[in-house]
Amino acid sequence: MRPRLHIRLFVVLLALAAAPWVAAQSPAPVAAAESGEPGLVAEADTPRDMALYTGESELLSQDAGERRAATARALAQVLVKLTGEPLASANPVVRRALPKAASFVMQEQTADSVSDQQGNTAIGGAPVYKTTLRVQFDPNKVDALIVGAGLPYWGPDRPSPILWLAIDDGRGARLVNAGQINVVKPLASRGTERGLSFGLPTGSAVEQAAVDTLWARNPGPIQALTERYGHQTQLLGRLYREGQGWTADWVLSSGGSELSRWSFSDPSPQRALASGADGAADAIARRDATRAAVGEPGVHVVRISGLRLADDFTRAMGYLQTLPVVRELTVLEATPDSLQLRLDLAVGLSSFDGFLAAGDVLEAQAPAATASPDPAGLSGEPTEARYRLRP
After folding, report:
1. Which of 338, 336, 335, 364 is nearest to 351 (CA)?
2. Is CB count within 10 Å lower at the N or C end of the chain?
3. Domains plus CATH for the chain?
4. d(CA 117, CA 112)
5. What count of Cα atoms within 13 Å lies in the side-chain half-sphere of residue 168?
6. Residue 23: predicted pLDDT
7. Vertex 188 angle, CA 184 and 190, to 5°
């Protein structure tokens, strides 16, 4: 039987401190947060963690072009959260989607604060105002984009690591506790961008006495302290001056198993701290993210029916041209109520159908498996896939 604890324990979710103007949400139950079970892309009716589908970007001006660019940056941030891939925006399918990021938007809002990108509240005595665009994207469309791009999907069941951080600024190593949230705000903010929240220890006498063990980055003895908070995953870090800058050394472990070790040096202590969130997100995503099969890219002949008005033809063609998985589109035949097209797709037809299902313009009339791909675009008569324009 676990001995009764006489030390009052208190965990602070740092993500709440990182985004004070976002409505606070109760942390997920520990059992769910620590499950570590890999997740597949959610079904359309599965409840989503909308925080993972929400991105933020600074608006550098009120110009319409800058707003489009900020929306694209916010979508890129969401894709990093949901895939665990820092370079998700470099994916060819994603690159085609980003200029059309507005078509993924569910809602957006702006918020003003007195601070610039470096956190300065005034320059030359004048206040510095920053406007942040906060965008919530359609989960079905984003999930379809992830599948269509062949990227991994990192589900919402994520651990919230307990952060054991010791800082030595030349006066000896000291444990950062829950009363010093502002000290680790760079890590918390970066964690929010990567879809991770962290907890801080209370800094009890027992925990303070473990600073030397923490400084040695020995996760074994610290694991028992982490489990007092009902968690299995822990991030141990030490931050110290080195030369003209700062170095942060990290080790991430879960349930006694080490997941990753890394170090990062930078003139800025804030950037050195933020590296803890990046390394933790990278390691957990490598363990938990799953990659869906997207099928074989190729050229397919499709027919779209239900085109009764001239505007219907424009609507169908315009929609297909916005889909990032459509590399090329050629009209083969037009009848009074249908279009026959040759589509060069970056994915198989089943994944293409998933893209359509996430929208409200076209729907498949026959199973995608009945249509044969023509990867080289050279065969005479590939089987025709059939779709219908939705009212």
Report:
1. 364
2. N
3. 49-153 (no CATH), 157-291 (3.40.50), 298-389 (3.30.70)
4. 13
5. 16
6. 27
7. 120
Q: Residue 182 and residue 266: Cα distance in Å, rounded?
A: 19
Q: How many CB atoms lie within 10 A of CB 53?
A: 22
> Torsion angle, CA of 23/32/106/20, rounded to 10 degrees?
20
Q: Position of tokens 């918390």?
A: 188
Calculate helix-pair angle for 269-288, 185-194, nearest 10 degrees: 30
Helix (H, G, I), strand (E, B) or coil at 290: strand
φ/ψ of 27, rounded to 5, equals -65, 150
Residue 269's CB: how many other CB atoms inside 10 A? 19
With a CB cutoff of 8 Å and minimum separation 6, the contacts of 313 are: 307, 334, 339
Find tokens 């470099």 and name the residue: 90
Confidence at residue 48, expressed as pLDDT on a 0 to 100 scale: 82
10 pLDDT exceeds 80? no
Dihedral angle at the C-alpha atoms of 93, 99, 100, 105, nearest 10 degrees?
Answer: 110
The owner of tokens 């990278």 is 282
Structure tokens belonging to residue 33 = 């947060």
Cα(146)–Cα(73) distance, integer angstroms: 16
Cβ–Cβ < 8 Å for 349, 373 = yes
CB 390 within 8 A of CB 362: yes
The owner of tokens 């490598």 is 286
Amino acid of residue 199 = G
Taking each helix axis from N to C end, the angle separating 185-194 and 64-83, rounded to the nearest 10 degrees, works out to 90
pLDDT in tens, 19-70: 332 222 222 222 223 333 333 455 545 578 999 999 999 998 889 999 999 9
Tokens describing residue 272 = 């050195």
User: For residue range 232-260, what is the model confidence (pLDDT) as tens digits?
Assistant: 999 999 999 999 999 999 999 999 899 99
Q: Which residues contact 117 (CB under 8 A, 6 or more apart)?
A: 58, 130
- The 10s digit of each residue's pLDDT in 339-377 is 999 999 998 998 899 889 888 899 998 654 444 455 444
Tokens of 74: 């916010």
Average pLDDT, the chain: 84
**Residue the block writes with tokens 């990227």:** 151
* Helices 139-148 and 64-83: angle between axes, nearest 10 degrees: 70
